[in-house]
Write a structure and sequence with these properties.
1 helix, six-stranded antiparallel β-sheet, Immunoglobulin-like, about 240 residues, mainly beta, five-stranded antiparallel β-sheet
């Protein structure tokens, strides 16, 4: 009888130990994400740099989520930067925000077994920029997005007569494309004596499938002064 009781107690203890070890193993397998730092707020956009750390399993999706209420989740507004299999930094551009508004932001990641969030940050967008400067290039939306191409839209806004040497769009896989550092560009030519607002579009080509790109409008006047529009982002399909 005592021997049988001893065997039963041993089995129970071993089961408890196995359960604890399993729980510990599950804990150490958790992926970690940090919301990071906020920079470059405007009246409509905010750029956020996050960090994926100690990546234990591949991610199905990652990015940042935001809301005007604390503790935003993936059910709120979010960027979708796609799958990921390595730790490292990532950058989200939060767009279509309201001016002079407090937003709460958290990084997130989604694996097959969990949704995890980083620490909460907050940022206030700038007041509405009423009117325009004498001239500016405005980044508009995209259309016809394919695995290797997309059509970018832009707008030239002017209150004066200006001579443009060139204008178009630039794009890159890094967060801040410029004319001297980009993956590609469109040059739609010169516009002498531009005195009215002008909409335009151009084809972005030679893109890679399933890749995050940052793009913006640009213009160069005849004195070689460069005007850049707001940076936006998109991901090409497979």
């Amino acid at each position: 009888m005592k021997r049988r009781l001893f065997i039963i107690l041993t089995l129970i203890i071993n089961g408890l130990i196995a359960s604890l070890l399993s729980s510990c193993e599950e804990y150490v397998q958790l992926n970690l994400v940090f919301t990071g730092k906020v920079g470059n707020p405007t009246d409509k956009t905010v750029q956020v740099e996050g960090v994926v750390s100690d990546l234990k399993s591949p991610l199905l999706e990652h990015g940042h989520c935001w809301s005007t209420s604390p503790q935003p989740t993936v059910n709120d507004f979010k960027t979708e930067l796609g799958p990921r299999s390595e730790a490292g930094t990532f950058v989200s551009l939060l767009t279509d925000l309201n001016p002079n508004t407090l937003y709460f932001i958290r990084a997130y990641l989604i694996s097959e077994t969990e949704v995890r969030y980083g620490e909460q940050l907050s940022v206030q967008t700038l007041p509405l920029q009423v009117g325009i400067k004498e001239f500016q290039a405005s980044t508009e939306g995209l259309s016809d997005i394919k695995a290797s191409s997309a059509t970018a839209k832009g707008k030239l806004l002017t209150e004066v007569s200006i001579n443009l040497a060139q204008y178009g769009h630039i794009w890159a896989t890094q967060a801040t494309p410029t004319l001297s550092n980009n993956s590609g560009s469109t040059n739609l030519g010169a516009l002498p004596n531009l005195s009215n607002n002008r909409d335009y579009s151009g084809a972005m080509t030679v893109l890679n499938p399933n890749t995050l790109y940052y793009y913006r409008a640009y213009a160069v006047d005849n004195t070689n002064k460069v005007y850049y529009g707001t940076i936006r982002q998109f991901t090409t399909p497979n």
